[in-house]
Specification:
mainly alpha, two-stranded antiparallel sheet
Length: about 90
């Protein structure tokens, strides 16, 4: 697959996943915020609304500036690794 096709595939899959993620977050706020629970099976699987004020597991709580500044650099690194000249070595190369 050439670089242009890979770029558009990556772009549209990423766009779809971002839109799907935002849609599910909207549904969670609309239906679960306020203490409601949705049970699928008793005592095994249910949905409950919980907010996390930081990054993963509450790391960097209250430091949105750092997160806002570091996120674009990670996106650039992933994009450059996938489509740029730089390639990470893989097991198949050995």
């Amino acid at each position: 697959m050439n670089k242009i096709k890979r770029f558009f595939l990556f772009f549209f899959v990423s766009l779809f996943l971002i839109i799907f993620d935002q849609w599910t977050k909207h549904l969670a706020v609309a239906f679960l915020k306020g203490g409601a629970e949705i049970a699928f099976t008793s005592r095994v699987l249910y949905l409950l609304y919980v907010e996390n004020p930081g990054a993963a597991f509450g790391i960097l709580r209250g430091q949105q500036f750092f997160s806002s500044c570091s996120s674009p650099s990670w996106y650039f690194w992933v994009f450059y690794t996938l489509f740029g000249r730089f390639r990470l070595p893989s097991i198949a190369d050995k």
